[in-house]
Amino acid sequence: METMLNHAGIAAGLPGAIPSGLHGAITAEPPGAITPVDHAGIAPVEHGAITPVEMPKAPACGNGHASGLATLEGTKAHDLVTVFKLLADETRLRILHYLTQKPELNVCTFVGLLHQTQPAVSHHLALLREAGLVECRRDGKHNFYHLVPARCQMFLDTAFGLQH
Question: What is the pTM of this model?
């Protein structure tokens, strides 16, 4: 179904007035003329059909800092983005969830819990280790992982503005 717009961009048949300052802004059609609109809602425009209209500038909002609000430095923001991207993966989120329930788990246990291959689980654990959220302890052939509570708490404090 094709929508029709009049010369002011108002859908035909719908009430509406031409905003002040826009009279004569579109010169392709006389007032009251109907322009067909394509499926994306864009009316065809011929070269030179639209004359520029100067829009009012938004009022200045001061120096960009609301009084009394702490800023988030670029480094902290980058660290938070990295952590939240890691946590956006369901497998890594589940790994952290399991580690909140047990002080330490080995890779073989994660393989069974997550129903994934050992290389896939090891990859997720390596990413969490690189971010400093988990640490690894090797015991013979097995790697045991545990949370780094201070690092996890630091990210929570930064993300939610908590102060101790």
Answer: 0.56
